[in-house]
Amino acid sequence: MPIDQQFNTINDKLQQLLKQQARLRKENERLRTELEVYKEKEDVYHQKIEDLAQQIGILKLGAFFSRNSASVKVCEFNRCAS
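Request: output the structure for the sequence above.
Response:
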């Protein structure tokens, strides 16, 4: 194979690899941007989960005091009726 032909073959392969590298860099940047968006969404979801957990705790506490308050009233009623 003549030197010129070898040079052209090597040059063609080099050009293909450079194009592939450019495509991969572009895809990598797109994926990094997409990942950043998902990380931001994840942070928002974690905050919402924490808020909901806190609300559940408050509701449970309210239900507990509500039940105890009703029990105390029944007990007081029973004492007054006796």
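The chain has a mean pLDDT of 88.
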